[in-house]
Specification:
By secondary structure, this protein is mostly helical. The chain is 61% helix and 2% strand.
């Protein structure tokens, strides 16, 4: 990562909104040396998470263990074994949940760290506190909820479309494994989502209930933006049409809706004209508001002022976007893409390269029926030779800086330092 670019971002933020005692990414000699000497980002990431778990007092991978050991999940796991060896996408989803490098429990950990960093209001009764972890019992429940909702969403994404609309009603007996896999994906996701909603209801906080419901709404909205193939995989819009619409209608003075009221739906108007705007909207809806509103809800439970709750929201939102940009870069750290590998067509490098070279849309158009028809190796090579990867690094740096800016509005603490280390661990060499 370019240190000069990060430094310039720090100067921009410092000039636009002065913040006392702000330790920005690579703004000090210590942090610059940390980035310059970092040779194994995975070890840095694991170390940051391990240190953070010690601060909250337990491994967050066991947060929702009682749900995973319930009779319903046990039965689903037994049935899932029948799918091993089948082409159903739920098998890969299950593998990524169990063996994936980027553990989903990290989100629950972030909610707990934000909770501990800010502390509780004096109005909170002792019986509501988990003093061993330094958080409220209700905040721990909230951390479980965010994990279950995100996991449920991934499992639901494993539902496979067996027939085109024009062929609906035909005999599917030959696809019994795929039908069975769909049933498991629906039931498994529904069980986790239902359990999460029940847990939110037990907190008996109407304002929190409303806030988290808007996060679920945003997540659902993210599945209906732009073009999709027959398996609901997202496809970018035609860059030429986007450019024409953008030039006609875009208003750079528009204020993001969540700066005014983050419970209102986001507007899709004119967003598809800009790669960064489109990417930001898609991923804010898909995951950004879930993490942001979970952090906000944690402070709501602690009876903190509304102003501080909004700080937590924007911290979670920008952290999620920085995280997504980091994940978008993963396939492009390889000089060549493995023959069976794919990457998201709405990832930041793809959208930025489409703006630079609209001709690659001819290859992307082949995926309108199925993204499997696209030559991902060819697309990968084209993007490697364009500006999309560097612009994505800038995007990651931007949201990391914005998350750090919000983070330093919290009082100094070990929990705040742990959150800072997590942000630092996401940065590239």
């Amino acid at each position: 990562m370019s240190l000069s670019r990060i430094y310039s971002l720090r100067k921009f933020l410092a000039n636009s909104s002065p913040i006392n005692n702000l330790r920005c990414i690579s703004s000090t000699k210590e942090s610059r040396d940390k980035l310059a000497t970092k040779t194994d980002s995975k070890n840095e990431w694991n170390r940051a998470l391990s240190e953070a778990e010690k601060i909250v007092g337990y491994q967050t991978s066991f947060l929702s263990l009682r749900y995973l050991l319930s009779d319903e999940i046990t039965n689903l796991a037994l049935h899932l074994r029948k799918l091993v060896g089948s082409p159903h996408p739920l098998v890969n989803t299950a593998k990524s949940l169990i063996y994936g490098e980027n553990n989903l429990q990290t989100w629950g950990l972030i909610v707990l760290l934000v909770s501990k960093a800010v502390g509780q209001s004096p109005e909170v009764r002792d019986m509501e506190q988990d003093k061993s972890a330094g958080v409220l019992i209700s905040q721990r429940t909230l951390a479980e909820v965010v994990e279950m909702v995100r996991t449920a969403n991934l499992i639901h994404n494993g539902v496979f479309n067996l027939q085109h609309l024009q062929n609906s009603g035909n005999n599917l007996s030959s696809d019994s494994d795929m039908i069975f896999g769909n049933k498991i994906a629906l039931l498994g996701g529904d069980y986790l989502l239902g359990s999460a909603c029940a847990q939110i209801g037990r907190l008996k906080n109407q304002e929190l209930n409303e806030l988290m419901c808007t996060a679920f709404r945003d997540m659902a909205d993210s599945h209906f933006i732009g073009c999709r193939d027959t398996q609901n995989n997202p496809i970018p819009s035609d860059p030429q049409k986007k450019k024409e619409e953008y030039n006609l209608h875009n208003n750079h003075d528009d204020i993001p809706i969540d700066l005014i009221d983050n419970k209102k739906p986001f507007s899709l108007k004119d967003v598809m004209g800009s790669p960064e705007d489109e990417w930001t909207l898609r991923h804010t809806l898909a995951e950004g508001t879930l993490l942001g509103k979970s952090c906000q809800s944690a402070l709501l439970l602690a009876k903190k002022p509304e102003e501080m709750q909004k700080v937590a929201y924007f911290f979670g939102k920008h952290l999620s976007l920085a995280w997504q940009a980091c994940m978008d870069l993963e396939p492009f750290r390889l000089s060549e893409l493995p023959s069976d590998a794919k990457f998201s067509l709405i990832s930041a490098p793809v959208l930025f390269h489409l703006e630079y070279d609209p001709s690659i849309y001819e290859e992307i158009k082949k995926g309108v029926e199925s993204v499997n028809n696209i030559d991902f190796q060819k697309l990968h090579q084209a993007i490697q030779n364009g500006p999309g990867i560097e612009k994505t690094r800038e995007l990651q740096s931007k949201h990391s800086m914005l998350a750090m800016t919000e983070l330093y509005k919290f009082p100094p603490s070990d929990a705040r330092t742990a959150l800072e280390n997590i942000i630092m661990a996401m940065q590239e060499n």
